[in-house]
Amino acid sequence: PCMDARKISDLGTCAGLIPSNHLLKRKQREFWWSQPYQPHTHLKSIIYKEEFVGCDQKFFIAGFRRSMRLCRRKSHLRQQHAGVCSASGCLSASGAPYEEVVRYQRRRSDKHRLIVLVGPSGVGVNELRRQLIERNPSHFQSAVPHTTRSKKSYEMDGREYHYVSKETFESLMYGHRMLEYGEYKGHLYGTSVDAVQAVLDEGKICVMDLEPQGIQIARTHELKPYVIFIKPSNISCMKQSRKNAKIITDYFVDMKFKDEDLQEMEDLAQKMETQFGQFFDHVIVNDNLQDACAQLLSAVQKAQEEPQWVPATWVS
Ligand code: 5GP
């Protein structure tokens, strides 16, 4: 009964990407995908289908930049509709829900891609990063962070940290050159784009963990981040695996998770996936640290060696 819903279905048909059984429903004058529709997953799978029929060129839709909310106003909608139909390519200008993507195959001469690990606190992101680097330190490396605290006698500038003034740190922060930062005991700490670049320049794979809010700063053609979401399994699996893990590894010995903590972790993971899922290139369920580490290793290898979807702006 409403024009907007028809237009949205037209948009899907004309781009050949949104199936008719996933029409939108109207809710409080806003448009939402009908549940349990997961736009990015679905669109990716459709893109792969296209690939099978030999259209391995450019595609207009890869995922949703924002949340599942599509748009609020008719004019906004018309703009998107016109953009997709015109085959004019990239719709990734701020506010548009789509971005153009291409298949990117890393050549030998290209730098490695940054590997970003994202996940709720307690799920083992830090530990997985540590284990990955420990397995092959000549291949994997963390970036050297910046800090405003003073250097200790046994430390070396550029090894533990880059020691900088508060002014320098803040200018990096405000210039969007810090991928993440935080304050600890009155001092600033953070990881800069340049520090990541330095690892990649050495021909190594830089591995870092990030809050999901930092993904967008990292998403540049220079770093070409491959984002891996580390997700907890369901609560009963988590309880069991942590019980077993206490016996076989030191990692969980001090981690006494209460049921509320596990629930909180699961809720946070769900929120992260809803809000930032469109940026995740790969998802690993960590219900066993050793398996998760093996999966991580194989995902990292694939990210560097096999073609992956990336925003078109990264390769043009
Ligand atoms: P320390 O001064 O003892 O070397 O580090 C103290 C704390 O600074 C660490 O426990 C950690 O919480 C924080 N820290 C160290 N490096 C970084 C970083 O790169 N980013 C952020 N956000 N915090 C860091």
Question: Could you state the order of secondary-structure elements as H and E?
Answer: HEEHEHEEHEEEHEEHEHEHHEHE
- CATH class membership of the largest domain: Alpha Beta
Mean pLDDT: 73
Give the CATH H-level superfamily of the largest domain: P-loop containing nucleotide triphosphate hydrolases
The strands making up the biggest β-sheet line up spatially as 6-11-5-12-13
How many distinct domains?
Answer: 3
Relative helix content: 25-40%
Ligands (ions, cofactors included): guanosine-5'-monophosphate
- What is the third-level CATH name, the topology of the largest domain? Rossmann fold
Percent of residues in beta strands?
A: 15-25%
Structure class? alpha/beta
Helix count equals 10
Coiled coil: 255-306
Domain Guanylate kinase-like: 112-301
Protein name: Membrane palmitoylated protein 4
GO cellular component, one term: adherens junction
